[in-house]
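User: Second chain of the day. Same drill as before.
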Amino acid sequence: DAQESRGLGDVYKRQILFIASILFYILYVGSFSFYLFAFLLVMPIILFVMLKKMSKKISVGFVNTQKIAGRSSKIPVVLRLQNRSKLPVANMIIEIEYYNTLDGDKNTMKINTPLYPDDVQYLTLHVSAKHYGTVRMNIKRCRIVDMLKLFKIRVSTDAASRLFGESTFTIVPDYIPIENNIANYAEMGLETDDYSKTSKGDDPSEIFDIHEYHDGDKINRIHWKLTAKQDKTMVKDYSLPISNSIVLMADLHLDTNTDDYMLVYDTLVEAIASISYYLIENDTPHKVVWYDKKKDLSEVVNVTDEESARLLISLLLQASVYDEPDLSMINYINEPERYKCGHLMYFSPAYNSNLSGVMNDNDLAFRYSYMLITNKKKDNVINDEFAEVVNVTAKHVAESIQEICL
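Assistant: Same format as last time:
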């Protein structure tokens, strides 16, 4: 509104100047009034022609077209402006449209800057986001203005501008430290080919380490062949099997009619990311599952290290939300290649009293946790026959899940 008011003010000033020149030409006797009036008539034409030619020699684009950052950080977005003409531009107006792909709510920002002749300039914008997800910024429109502010001409879009006219950055969750106990479900008969890289166990099928004999080592673990070669008693340490038996399932059902649905979404992603990172830190591979509406199937990511944990968050943030609740669980049950896990943790913004019974009837796990995502603290305890119901509160994720054994 302020810019429109200033624009109208400039128009009125130009009109007053033109009327004053006409009156000056009529009332003043002499050649100077004629030359002044002719100059004011010709000047707009010259400015328009110059501006039109300059608009074809200007290109605008983003330098960094894709970035990943935390929600608490300021993200530098760099614009490259090039003026290939020999004349300066008094003012260039760049309109940038930006939106989170989750809600698609579009906003526009305007940037005003001069352009120097035959030069390349860089503008750095420091932006931040309130919510997790993928944020897209695109150059909606660029216009240049003459020095008298008579004309605004749109900059021609060349191939380079089209190629670098969009910038995408993903806002990922900041790590929330937790200190939960982790159960080992290997003794429940779950098959596994994964073994701990940091802890020894009792599985003789895989050797964890070989060391010189110490008091307390078992005689039946002596490595006789190596002992004979090295002429000293060497003992085998067996490996600890780790079953990929913890499943984190995300129900991406969100009620977009409520004002706080983005906060609920943030909390759900935060909780899954925190638990997943914590499990990897403690050498516990696991699976993360959600329903992909576009593919109409369950997306399953095996998280075994930090790289796959980062990939998980990137894929999860790109997944689309849906209106119907519990599609992740319904489609997972209908998948032909599912297996029984040790602990199934179901993250959902809505509680379905019948769902845990459905999980149990389909024999999906030995143990179930219903992680109910809320935006406010809830003191009421939900008693469920088959699952432990945990209220995961926005901005209090670590506090909400601190009592649960993973």
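The longest strand covers residues 133-145.

User: Great, on to the next one.
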